[in-house]
Structure formats: structure tokens, C-alpha cells
Amino acid sequence: MPELTLDQWAAIRVAYETTAVPLRELAASHGVSHVSVAKRAERQGWLRPGEAPPLPDGAAEEKLVARLYRTFERQIGELELRFAGAEGGVDEKDARTLSVLARTLETLAKLRGGAEADGEDVGGGVDIDSLRARLQARLEQLDAAGDAAGATAGGTAAG
Q1: What is the pLDDT of residues 30-39, one digit of tens each?
Q2: Residue ranges of the domains in the chain?
Q3: What are phi and psi of 122, to 5 degrees?
Q4: Which one, of 44, 46, 17, 16, lies nearest residue 32 by Cα?
Q5: Cα pseudo-dihedral 56, 58, 60, 61, rounded to 10
């Protein structure tokens, strides 16, 4: 059988994940063996309709939580950079983003199984208390900068 292109495999994947067509029939309609489809599906994590993804083992779960912490740190850093370059201060969208990030931080702490309460570092070396303190200090700086900018412009600072 000839080697299929990426587009052909993509079409097979769509059919595999969105229809209940039997595997042998699906493979035959695309000119490939059902064994090839089954192997690729397993290797790439394709799911048939109604299938649930496998639960991660402990190590995979720990890696996922660590990745979430790194993503959280990156998002906070991006917000700080935007705030540093912004002249208008913090807008409503930024406040909502910070609120979501704070809830994410709480959820991550719960996922770590109470590591925060034990005083451990969480998230692959991230000290949760230090992170919260830095976030609070940064918000206070931004609030003070916004008040000063509003007073300089002759406007009133929203609070």
C-alpha cells in the first residue's frame, strides 16, 4: 500500500473521532489497513466517539501540574510587561485576567494536594507565598501609578 499524506491521515482521524463507522470499514474506505489505523490512533491518542481519555499516572499528573504553574508564571510575567509599558494603567480586561489567574493559582494549589499548607515549594520550585506577595506588591505599584497618572492628567483616579 502506498504511504498516505498528512492530509489523508487527517481525514482518517476526523472520521475515526467523529463517526461510529467500524474500524475495518473506515480503513478500507481510505485504502489503508485497519492495523495501520489502529496503531496510529493508539500512538497519537485518537479517541472514538464516547471514549474517555485515559487517566494520567502519578508522574504524568505531576508533570501536568508543573506545566500549569509554568504557564501561570509566564502569564503573570506577560501582564507585568504590558503594565510596565501601558500609560493608561490597568483596565477591566486586565483585572478580569488577574482574577482568573488568582483562581487558577488556588486550583493549582489544591491539585498539588495541599503542598501549600505544608510550606513546600510548589510548581517545580515556585514558592506560592512568594508568588502571591510579588503579585500583591505589583498590583499595589500599578494602582499607585494609575492614581498618580490620573492626578497628573487632571482627572480622577477610579478606585
Answers
A1: 999 999 999 9
A2: 6-44, 58-152
A3: -125, 155
A4: 16
A5: 80
